[in-house]
């Protein structure tokens, strides 16, 4: 009786209507936010990254197909096959890996024009997913070429265009679209060279000195073996090339 009486009191009705209106408004706003973040993140995120992985016929693809990188993976094979996003350097040996690097660089530069970030990793590397998402969040929208790795100075007495450039270790390097836009995959040099040094030289020759070189966090990248708490995984149990 008292509740009914209060509810029919005009002031109570006004307060009630105001509260309901506010609650409905908040609900609609939240749904809108939820939907827009959902469309944005779930559709754009996967296309923001491509993971380039040179593989050979000794690579166990089932391992990487079950890792988080699977959604972004572009394998570079030295043969043609169902698991190959691209095929490069078909008469490959470890000595000619630099040709494979020039080849995939040219191909991704031409083909993956809608991709913002790229990771090149080896088939014995394991990378922390959250670390990569944080890097993507941090460097999205940068107008400079961004190159994330560890950096080694290349001294090459024979090739002037390679000498004095810095390159990242091939187990892992990450770069943005801006870097791919200026990189020069047509550089010429004498002799067989380390493939990662060639990548660095292509950056050096094409993009000049204004490349943002960011040091990688090696506590988030595992090479050849993964070990953490009660896990130990040998990532390169069988020698490759
Ligand atoms: C995605 O987010 C941006 C802001 O980051 C916004 O301008 C854009 O309208 C959003 N797109 C969709 C489809 O929600
Ligand atoms: C996307 O996800 C991030 C967290 O990962 C969140 O902060 C953001 O609000 C989401 N929406 C948009 C539009 O970026
Ligand atoms: C794998 O590749 C190596 C080097 O190209 C070649 O010698 C070998 O015959 C190949 N093995 C198989 C099973 O295709
Ligand atoms: C290569 O670069 C180093 C350091 O930048 C320099 O000292 C050396 O003279 C260069 N070598 C040649 C052959 O140009």
Would you write up a description of this structure?
With 241 residues, the chain is an alpha/beta fold. The chain has two domains: 2-43; 48-234, Spore Coat Polysaccharide Biosynthesis Protein SpsA, Chain A, CATH 3.90.550. The protein has seven helices and 13 strands. The protein has helices at 2-8, 10-47, 61-65, 97-111, 129-139, 177-182, 195-207; strands spanning 49-54, 73-77, 86-87, 117-121, 125-127, 146-149, 152-154, 165-167, 172-176, 212-215, 221-223, 225-228, 231-234. The strands form four sheets. A seven-stranded mixed beta sheet has the order 3-2-1-4-9-6-10. It has a two-stranded antiparallel sheet with strand order 5-11. Strand 1 (49-54), helix 3 and strand 2 (73-77) form a beta-alpha-beta unit. One 2-acetamido-2-deoxy-beta-D-glucopyranose (NAG) binds next to helix 2.
